[in-house]
Amino acid sequence: MSDDPIVQMTGIRKDFTGVRALDGVDFTLRPGEIHAIMGENGAGKSTLIKVLTGVHTPDAGDILLDGKSVRFHSPGAAQSAGISTVYQEVNLTDNLSVAENLFAGREPRLGPFINFRAMRRKAKALLDDIGIDLNVAAPLSSYSIAMQQLVAIARAVDIESKVLILDEPTSSLDRDEVAVLLGVMRRLAEQGTAMVFISHFLEQVYDISDRMTVLRNGKLVGEWSTADLPENELIGHMLGREAVVLEQIERTAAAHQVEDETPLVSATGLGRKGSIAPYDLDVRRGEVVGLAGLLGSGRTETIRLIAGADRADSGSLAFDGAKVGGHNPRTASARGIAYCPENRKTEGLVGDLTVAENMILAMQASRGWARTIPVARRDKLVAEFIEKLDIRPANPDMPVKNLSGGNQQKVLLARWMLIEPKLLILDEPTRGIDVGAKADIQKLVAELSADGMAVLFVSAELDEVTRLSDRIAVLRDRELIAVLESEADMTTEKIVDTIVAKGGER
Amino acid sequence: MNPYAKRLMWPVLILVALIVVNIAATGIDFIVPSVNDGRLGGAFVNILRRSAPLMLIALGMTLVIATKGIDLSVGAVYAIGAAIACQMIIGQEDQSAAGLIFSAVALALIVTAVIGAWNGTMVAYFGIQPIVATLILMIAGRGIAQLITGGQIPKVQDSSPFTQIGRGEILTIPVPIWIAALVFVAIALLTRKTALGLLLESVGGNPEASRLAGIRSKGITVLVYLVCGLCAGLAGLIGAANLGSADANNGGLWIELDAILAVVIGGTALLGGRFYLLGTVIGVVIIGTLDDTIINVGLSSQWQFTAKAIVVFAVALLQSSEFRGWILKPFKPKPEIAAPAPAEEVPAK
Amino acid sequence: MSTETLTERPSRSTLFDGLTRYIPIGATVVLLLVMYLGGIANFRNFDSPQVVAGLFIDYAPLLVIAIGMTFVILSGGIDLSVGSVMAFSTMACAWLTVDSGVSAPLAMVLVLAFGTLWGLLIGAVIHYFSVQPFIATLVGLFLFRGLTLQISDTDVSMREVDFWQWGMTHVEFGGKVRDGGFWLPYLSFVAFAVVIVAFVVLHYTRFGRGVYAVGGSEQSALLMGLPVARTKIGVYAISGFCASLAGVLAAFATKSANPLANVGAELDAIAAVVIGGTLLTGGAGFVLGTVAGVMVWGLLNTLIAFHGGLSSWWARIVMGVLLLAFILLQRFLARSGEKRRT
Question: Which residue in B178, B151, B146 sits closest to B165, CA to CA?
Fold first, then answer.
């Protein structure tokens, strides 16, 4: 297995307008190995992959493929050199059939014409081989996202590449589907294909990978053989000193008592077909309720119903003791429900507008367009929150798109704090932001709840959930399966056990 | 330099260059207004007077484009507005009655506002792409205008006060210039002295984020299309009053393209977000001056189309960051700056 | 190796699949039949085969530009320049053969090559400089109208050049028109050939499937390693070729060049494409649908001509209403597809 490396990247550097995404990263891939690239969000995993596959061109560094220096300028070029990729989002065209997607750009032909019959036959054989059975003539759009992802993988496998890159391929797959994928990967490794595997499911990484490269903040931490790197050490490498910093605010939130017994928010049988099964959930004043579950377990869907971002089709919601009717983001904001969505860029901020404009947006929206906020009041509020949340650079007139992720998140938080909400809903507020900002935001959540604000809080990091929450709602497969209340239950182990136990039932 | 001034720099330079060319060709009289019979005249004032309909439509279009939209139907709405007013006036014995003129103008404006609101409803509530939604009326609108006029070209008596909307003057300044200026001030106040401008830019910049922030984006969208329709109707009235007639086929022909061009020259991106009303005004004057420049430098009027094509091409390329990167590559020492931006987002189709 | 097999049946129905995707085109065909039968019921001589044949004479140029437009729209773009390019091509044919004495076949080849090259250029600008198709093709709309007017601002006749007689040379089928037969000129066969070639290219070649893929998702097509640049530039080249060919056909049909001909032809073409069931956002549609769309437009005008009492503007109004109906129908189908998806 330890032949000459098939891919050798040395000293890779990549800058995006002012941000150094990769800084002198080395990466070595050997034939027949499954190599995991590990790191937190924003560590540079995806950028490294995109440099290798020709989506981005590196600003410095060398890439050797089979000992020869290469530099790809398009994914097509990388593909024809034997590097194929499966991305987290399904990158196929769902208006075409399954077979066409499998063979797009390399369809079997008779003369200049596509031989559809041969293509369908080959597609069928390919999918059979992998262990999935679909109607290959049906359009891809008629299948679930998970199945589409498997089709994307089948396509990459069939290109007979020397190098196969799998960037978070399992995030939308269920257990059986993951088993199929890992089976395919093992077989390919036996045949000598080198694979790069990125996944945030540690269990899968330990199950399948031979070797790991860990990145942190765009820099290389090191390369280890999987067998030599126990899980706790891996997490230590991924988080760096971060873990220490965050320990300090441990349990400050849970320490205070929840006095009010009438819940501020009470969802009864609230649900939406195809997105989240009906659930009951209460949030009291001054309480932080965390939502835990894997990606795709329905965390976001749960809170979107309470936030009014999606319409519920069953059940009812009571706020402050009164039944809520005609729920939408506008009425929710009028009631004092604030919602910071998961995706800051597409659902949260307006990139071209300034920091100040983004901050006052919710307040202005609640006043309507005719009643402007007086300039003096506006400037004062903006300055106050820039200072309070330590937003950098402290320039209210800067377009918000030029800020770093952590500062953008703070601007979004400030937008809602301006309207002094009773319930603050946060979806992954600390994802992909730097350590300092992460600690700031966690502290802020603790402070706000201490002041009596109710907080609903989603995070993929179980540590963060257990640290901040007074109660934890656990989700699996688009269903709320348990609410953990007692101090003893609020551990990552208990949450994982709850999720796994529920999975075992079926 | 603040970003507003930076955005306006290029359009202003182009306009100044055009004016200088004209002065060189025809003398200083080009720019200096003259007063004849108590009426402001001169080449440049005439350009402004003739540009008034385009100005109105371009201002409305600016708001629509700020919301990530586009309104292709304005030329047809122009024709409909003109047809309604003229047809109503010629149907009466006394074409000078104030009540008649008033109700003709009011009816034309109401109908065109309703048409605008309909476009906005299609976009906001039915979720149809703006280019598609307004294409329908772009195709059918002139048919409707012909239906109103019965396929004729209604001719209003020259004595009717209606024609004063296009030909008259108040305090020596031509009425169309007054109307354009008033509409500009009204829209500027409406968008910059209230929060409407901010909310528009927010809706155009990121519709989903705006919805989640609690903005009534649908209502705002309908409102801007309504304003745009109203502006197109008013432009049609000025055009018809100036000619004393309404030509359903050729009135306001291609004005939608000129208006979009003026907005783009003025620095507002077709992708929505930030908008520049003053930039649009300059863009309109550039287009108006361009036509005169062709004649003044001794080219035949057929060159107007070609000149416009060159302007569109230049503007399109100058606004493309890829083009700028490509053309500036040899002059930039550092490779980072010339490297293409990360291909994260493909513009929505 | 694989221990178990995962099975999933297609569950969702969207605009792209199964029977749903034939609803818009089905509606168009029903509409055509209703219009045709309505014509037969109301007007004498409407049942003559020549009525249908006539559609492919009068609307052959429109059919050709609509086919080119189908490629562009399927790829997610739009081409506003086709009317001007077409008028310019007719004028260039006249100018080259009448005024400059270039031999007619050579003139024709030059015009077609020029249209294609222009399409290539604009396609390259759209792709490499990320200029919006709407704006980039606007250049062509203005430029070629201007150039046409500069060649001549009045009609130019091409009657003296024998070559231009070729296009209207006709073939009779089933005897004379009064004996129940019909005739078609050569230029109609050129249009048919364009349809057939377009159909084969779109449905049976890699380039054609690439057009659908790019229209479905350009980003995905790029990451799948498809030749996105070639595809995007190619569709504008095809549209440019079709527009100049339509201009040549118009030269055959009228044997004269009018500098103000075909103003707004791009709108007719877009309308025909949409009524033919192609999604304006790209990625779904059919060449044969476009043929049906052009026939709707032609039949509408024929009906109005037969009626005699109606004015031609009704055609535009009806076309607008149909367009509205089709767009709402597509929107409804797309939405119901989205609903079932979650």
Answer: B178
> Nearest CA to CA, how far is A402 from chain C (Å)?
22
Q: Which amino acid is at B299?
A: L
Is A128 in the same domain as A199?
A: yes
Put simply, the answer to whether B320 touches C130 (Cβ < 8 Å) is yes
Q: Do C4 and A177 touch (CB under 8 A)?
A: no
Instruction: Report domain extents, chain B.
Output: 3-338
Neighbouring C-beta atoms of residue A311, cutoff 10 Å? 11
Chains touching chain C through at least 3 C-beta pairs below 8 angstroms are A, B
CA distances from A362 to B100, B198, C234 (A): 47, 12, 46
ipTM: 0.83
Residues C294, C66: contact at Cβ < 8 Å? yes
At what angle are helices B277-296 and B43-66 packed, to 10 degrees?
140
Q: Find out whether B235 and B163 touch, Cβ atoms under 8 Å.
A: no
For the purposes of burial, counting CB atoms within 10 Å of the CB of A232, is it exposed (0-12), middle (13-18) or buried (19 or more)? exposed
State yes or no: pLDDT of A42 exceeds 70. no
Distance from CA of A400 to the nearest CA of B (A): 12
Residue A43, helix vs strand vs coil? coil
Q: How many CB atoms lie within 10 A of CB A83?
A: 27
DSSP assignment letter at A399: B
**CA–CA dist B114, B133 (Å, integer):** 15
Residue C339 lies in a domain: no
| Run of H or E residues at A196 | strand A194-198
CA distance B222 to chain A (A): 14
**Same domain, residue pair A218 and A358:** no
Residues 6+ apart with CB under 8 A from B275: B62, B63, B65, B66, B197, B200, B201, B204, B268
Q: Which domain holds residue A486?
A: 244-336+422-506
**Digit-coded pLDDT (tens) for C59-96:** 999 999 999 999 999 999 999 999 999 999 999 999 99
Edge-to-edge strands, sheet with A471-476: A337-340, A423-427, A454-458, A288-292, A471-476, A479-484
CA distance A444 to B187: 41
Q: Tell me the whole-structure pTM to 2 decimals.
A: 0.84
Which chain A positions have a beta carbon within 8 Å of B211's beta carbon? 329
Q: What's the burial of C279, exposed, middle or buried (CB within 10 Å: 0-12/13-18/19+)?
A: buried
CATH 2.30.110 matches B3-338 = no
- CA atoms in the 13 A half-sphere facing the CB of B89: 34
CA–CA separation, A494 vs A481, rounded Å?
13
CB atoms within 10 A of CB B186: 12
Note whether B106 and B93 are within 8 A (CB). Answer: no
**CA quadruple C323, C329, C331, C334: dihedral, nearest 10:** -140
Please report whether residue A2 resides in a domain: no
pLDDT digits 0-9 by tens, B121-162: 999 999 888 988 998 999 899 899 999 998 888 888 888 888
Count of structural domains, chain A: 3
Out of B205, B213, B339, the one facing A365 most closely (by C-beta) is B213
Please report whether residue C4 resides in a domain. Answer: no
Question: Do A143 and A63 share a structural domain?
Answer: yes
Polymer length of chain A: 506
Whether residue C245 contacts residue C194, with contact meaning beta carbons closer than 8 Å, is answered with yes
Q: What tokens appear for C173 in the block?
A: 């089928």
Check residue B338 and give its pLDDT.
35
Q: Would you say residue C278 lies in a domain?
A: yes
Q: Is C311 on the interface with A (CB under 8 A)?
A: no
Q: Which residues of C touch B257 (CB under 8 A)?
A: 138, 141-142
A1 within domain boundaries? no
Output the CA angle C90-C95-C97, nearest 5 degrees: 95
Domain boundary residue among A377, A395, A420?
Answer: A420
Q: Give the residue from A378, A394, A420 where a domain finishes.
A: A420
Gap between the Cα atoms of B245 and B85, Å rounded: 10
Residue A342 to residue A320: CA distance in whole angstroms: 25
